[in-house]
Sequence to fold (322 residues):
Amino acid sequence: MNSDKTSPSVRIIMSVGGVVLVMMVAVACSGTDNPLPTETAPPIAATETSAPTPLIEDTPVPSPVPDETELTKLFTDDHGVAMALVPAGPFEMGSYDGADDEKPVHTVTLDDFYIDLYEVTNSQYALCVDAGVCDPTTDTTAFESSYSRRIYYGNAEYDDYPVIYVSWYDAQDYCEWRGARLPTEAEWEKAARGGLDGKLYPWGDEAPVCETGAENGAKFDDDGVCNDTDTEQVGSYSANGFGLFDMAGNLWEWVSDWYGADYYDNSPADSPLGPENGGFPVLRGGAWGDDSDRLRVSDRRFNDPKSGALNIGFRCARDVTP
Fold:
C-alpha cells in the first residue's frame, strides 16, 4: 500500500528593488495509487512587469515515480488484436453449488495478464492460415459450414464471427503466431468473473437472456428465440467488468490445462497450470447450443485435443512481461 507523500518545496529567490525575497513554492507530487495520469493545471499567462526574471535556486526536485502496477488497461498486439488487462491478485475459484469437479472453492493468486476482448474470429484465424502457420479449418466441405450456414469460414459475411473447428493444437499454433498463448484455466475463470467473486455468471447472478446488447445477454439455447440457432457475431452482448465479451455462451473455449476431475483438491495457490499431463484439455464458457447452467463461470468440460467442433472456439492470453 502506498503511503501519502509530502509535497516537496522549492525556494525561489527574487530581487525586487534591491530587496531579496525568499518564497517557498509547494510542488505537488501525485501519489502512485491512481493508474491514470492526473490532469495538469494549464500554465498561467505571464503578465507584463518590470521586475527581473526570478532566479531559481539549484535545488533538486524529485519527479513522481509511476507505480509499478500502472499498466495499460487495453493493449493491441502486432496483429491488431485488442486485449484487456486482468489485474494481478487473488480470486475465489470454483463453486459451492456446482458439480464435484468445481469443488472445493479455493483462493488462487495470479500475476497480471492480458486476454483477448473477443473470441478469435474467422478473419483473424485466416491471416494465420495465409501466413502458412495455421492449418485451415476447411479440410472437407463440411468444415466450411456452421450449424445453420452452408458457407461460414471464408465467407465475408461471417468474418467477425468466431472461428470453429479449431483443435487444441491449432489454437495453440495461432496464439503462438501472435506472440501469445492459450490462457490457463485459472486465468480464464478470473477473466470471466470480471472482478465479481462468488457470482454465477460474468455479470452476476441474474439469469442470462438471449438479447443482443443486454447486460446479462449471451448466446445460448433458451428454449425460445435462440433455440438451436448458431454462433453470433463477437461482441453482440455486453462486456463484463474487465471489458471482455462472450465469456458466457457463443462457443466453448479451449484453455491450456489438461482436465483433472479432482485437481482442485490439491491445486497450487499461485498461478496453477493444471495437471502435468492428461488425455483431454479443458473447455470453458458454454456455447450457443447449451442451457444456462453450462454458462456458469465455474463450469468445466473437456474434449479431445485433436478434434475441433462447431461449438468450440478460443481466445488468446499473454504475459504482461514477456
Summary: Residues 1-69 have pLDDT under 50 and may be disordered. Residues 71-322 form a domain with the paralog of FGE (formylglycine-generating enzyme) fold (CATH 3.90.1580.10). The helical segments are 122-130, 168-177, 185-193.
